[in-house]
Specification:
Layout: H1 2-11, H2 14-35, E1 40-45, H3 55-67, E2 73-78, E3 83-84, E4 102-104, E5 107-108, H4 117-134, E6 139-142, E7 157-161, H5 166-169, H6 176-192, E8 195-198, H7 201-209, E9 217-219, H8 226-229, E10 244-247, H9 256-268, E11 276-279, H10 287-299, E12 302-306, H11 310-319, E13 322-325, H12 334-342, E14 346-349, H13 352-358, E15 362-365, H14 370-382, H15 384-398, H16 403-417
Parallel strand pairs: 1-2, 1-6, 2-4, 3-5, 6-7, 7-8, 8-9, 10-11, 10-13, 11-12, 13-14, 14-15
Helix pairs in contact: 3-16, 9-14, 12-15
Length: about 425
């Protein structure tokens, strides 16, 4: 701001001064308009849209799509940069949701001001937390655990989504370089938030066990994902005619090692299990698994597809002979819901959250017992009646998870936070 004032005094020609005055007046007018909005205004941190969608990004995208047509909310999207046209600023890599309730808040610095555009962009970047605070939003929503620096001076009611407590429950499965910082920042969120959202009652109970008052926590289930929306698409080339499907990053928490051990047991019993298809990229601490996956691939009973499109993933769910989810920990377990929605029999880790989601529509085994996993899968493969019963139960269970309901409950939580 001091740079702008100096430029006004030293370099401002009448034409540039007039253009700068008009730009400042338009900026102030836009802020006054936002402050006068009669609907409930929610500032939404959309930083997760600046990288390929992961679980958090997918959750936020689905939520906003199903809130976009509401006439009682104004959802203001604030990204990593509030400056439009700045060549050095990051850009969203996915299309932002649109609708009557959606407003993306950005500022642009035209040429012809008393300072060059790059300098104006620099000033806007530095003032971003103050500009957001000036908008006077009723609610500040952090969909990814932490309140961003951009919310620093804003006064709205603070609502945060806590997807899981993996950093506390499974510290060995979190990158050491980020675990300490994440724990500290998460502690700040738990202290600052007026209302905390979780995707399951299981995570809600875990928060209560840490000392967070249950009155400050609302459990709101997610809806379904790619299976609900994607069109009919063939499975990726090279996919076997029959297969068992695992969806998730190859990293410690997802426990792919139990699957590999299970399949070796099944093959040793000469039970002719379907090939195992892994869908998801390699995460951290996966060096040993890379070698084991390569060996299983050479032996002909495993296919690692890596990342696939949403339509291909939906097709994989629909055509799978069964879906396996051996995670050590989950906050919700979207692959479980996807399997149920697609009519694929599910074998899952015996975790409270997965029983909450899948109920009687799945078979369960402890995540650290490949022998029991082999027993469950063998029983499923041998019993067509069991497969059909799980499939029918799964359709009924999946109907409980709906993004319209998620959006309605989230809108109610925003109002409650006030």
């Amino acid at each position: 701001m001091r740079a702008l004032l100096r430029a006004l005094l030293r370099f401002g020609s009448p034409r540039r001064l007039r253009r700068t005055f008009l730009w400042l007046r338009e900026t102030a007018s836009a802020i006054r308009r936002r402050r006068a909005e009669p609907r409930l205004t929610v500032a939404v941190d959309v930083n997760s849209f600046y990288e390929p969608l992961t679980g958090v990004g997918w959750y936020l995208q689905r939520l906003l799509v199903h809130l976009a047509d509401r006439d009682d909310l104004r959802l203001r999207l604030y990204g990593q940069s509030l400056v439009e046209g700045d060549p050095g600023a990051p850009k969203p890599v996915v299309e932002l949701p649109r609708g009557p309730a959606i407003e993306r808040v950005v500022y642009a610095a035209p040429d012809g001001l008393v300072i060059p555009p790059w300098r104006a962009h620099q000033v806007l970047r530095r003032l971003a937390p103050l500009l957001l605070a000036a908008d006077g939003n009723d609610v500040l929503f952090a969909p990814n655990f932490l309140f961003p620096r951009l919310f620093l001076f804003a006064r709205g009611a603070r609502v945060a989504m806590i997807h899981d407590l993996g950093v506390r429950k499974l510290p060995w499965a979190v990158r050491p370089d980020s675990a300490a910082a994440l724990r500290e920042q998460l502690e700040r969120t738990l202290l600052e938030a007026d209302l905390l959202l979780t995707p399951s009652e299981a995570v809600r109970r875990e928060l209560a066990e840490t000392g967070v008052s249950p009155r400050r926590v609302r459990a709101i289930h997610h809806g379904t994902g790619v299976v609900a929306d994607a069109a009919s698409t063939p499975v990726p080339a090279g996919t076997p005619s029959r297969y068992a499907l695992h969806v998730g990053t190859v990293e410690p928490r997802k426990n792919v090692s139990t699957l590999l051990a299970t399949w070796r047991r099944l093959r040793a019993r000469r039970l002719d299990p379907p090939p195992l298809v892994l869908c998801g990229g390699f995460g951290w601490k996966a060096e040993t698994l890379r070698r084991e996956i390569a060996e299983a691939t050479r032996e002909g009973w495993l296919l690692h597809l890596g990342y696939v499109s949403a339509d291909e993933l939906a097709a994989l769910y629909r055509s799978a002979e069964l879906v396996v989810l051996p995670s050590f920990y989950e906050g919700f377990g979207l692959p479980a819901v996807e399997a149920l929605r697609a009519g694929a029999p599910l074998v899952a880790s015996d975790l409270p959250v997965l029983r909450e989601v899948a109920g009687e529509a799945a078979l369960y085994a402890p995540p650290d017992r490949p022998d029991l996993w082999a027993d469950r899968i063998a029983a499923l493969l041998a019993d067509g009646g069991l497969r059909e019963a799980l499939r029918n139960e799964g359709f009924e269970r999946a109907a409980l998870f709906d993004w319209h309901r998620t959006a309605e409950e989230t809108a109610r939580a925003f109002r409650e936070a006030l």
